[in-house]
From TrEMBL:
UniProt source species: Liquorilactobacillus satsumensis DSM 16230 = JCM 12392
UniProt-listed PROSITE patterns: GLYCOSYL_HYDROL_F1_1
Record key words, sorted: Glycosidase, Hydrolase
Protein name, entry field: Beta-glucosidase
Catalytic site positions: 369
One MF annotation (Gene Ontology) recorded for this entry: beta-glucosidase activity
Coiled-coil intervals, chain numbering: none
Lineage: Bacteria, Bacillati, Bacillota, Bacilli, Lactobacillales
Family: Belongs to the glycosyl hydrolase 1 family.
Amino acid sequence: MKQRLQKQFPKNFFWGGALAASQVEGAATADGKGLTTADALPHGVFEKVEIPPQGDYLKKIAVDFYHRYPEDLSLFAEMKLKMLRISISWARIFPNGDDETPNEKGLAFYDDLIETLRRKGIEVMVTLEHFEFPLHLVTHYGGWKNPKLIDLYMRFVKLLFKRYQGKVKYWLTFNEINVTLEAPFNGVGINRSLDQIDQTEMYQAIHHQLVASALAVKAGHEIDSNFMIGNMVAYSPYYPLTPKPEDVLEAIQENRKTFFFTDVQARGTYPAYMQRYFKDNGINLKITKAEQQLLQENTVDFISFSYYMSYCASANKEGLEKIRGNVISAVANPYLKKSDWGWQIDPVGLRIALNTLYDRYQKPLFIVENGIGANDDLIEVAGQKTVQDDYRIAYHKAHLQQAWEAIQDGVDLRGYTAWTPLDIVSNGVAEMKKRYGFIYVDRNNDGTGTLKRYKKKSFYWYRDVIESNGSALFAEDQSAN
């Protein structure tokens, strides 16, 4: 029997990993860095905001990437990563956010980080704001509800665009910009619970970020026409729990909570369904004609998103099982299994997400976060410490196979940056115990540990996948005659 054609990903596909400054760097106040909104959430998204943060907390040191990045980048190169998504801490460059001059020590760190990645042949993707901005912008300005933050953000952004022109091509304006709807302090720095926040105030803050994102696209293209500037959302598709029309409509409405952001950033206008929502809920935003034109003329070059799981939607939620991700609680899917942290595992949902976004926008896509948080046990095998994380391999394999299927469907998928190359402090619960990495970091929830790095079984597996350009994902299929 004739051997099947080899399954591979497109040539020049970006196999990579993703990191966030606040979860990996540590050095919270070193070399002139200011405190950030991430520091003010020392125990995770759900805990009380601390301004200023008190005592020791895991993110203060994190996994000490700030001092250990040369070792880590060597490991990433050994894993054959082709892209690393990083974020640049605004407070490491402008400690208060409104400083007149940048902190050169902070810039020197990112100068060397980016240059080292380039020397190792690893493309850099930079997230300009990843759930951490200078805490002073909250305490003095009130966060993103104040339009002054647009100008301060642009001072930061233009500095980076000019400094790293010719070195960084791919940029993301805001991380998971839609998460503000569930975690307003995380997203826009409004320090009140959701039930205490006026909807007009919250959506005005969101509008300011959308304007800032469009201004960043405009400035980036003016500085370097080769820049590719994208948006980034957390995307968990909602399925109707049943074929009941009311459940189908509920799923449409839930999905629109994400599409609102991608519609504005990729299509350039506030969609009609949001206009109705604003009207029905008495939300009155200040949006100028100049801002409308700005949004229309400066749409993103590509769309990027995180994908961890899907949800179900039901018009009647009484008595139904609920699941919770980092910030969203929704109806559980009875057909899916769960991770150690109760997150449902749905690889096919990634194919659905990719097809949905590409059908809707016809723009290139990047999966910039995907992974599984789990309890890992460090053991010794043949004299080497490692983790036998077959569950992580199975998770990534199943999702990458579905990403390949989406490419065959016609989706223009440019890259996959796994969350994450090495263990970091989790954002939602601020723990080390919830591990995502292909590399184990010896640090515990109580702050103990040597910070030494150990390669997990998944490290070698991902390296083989990258070296084969995805062919290793289908080794059993392709060995059949």
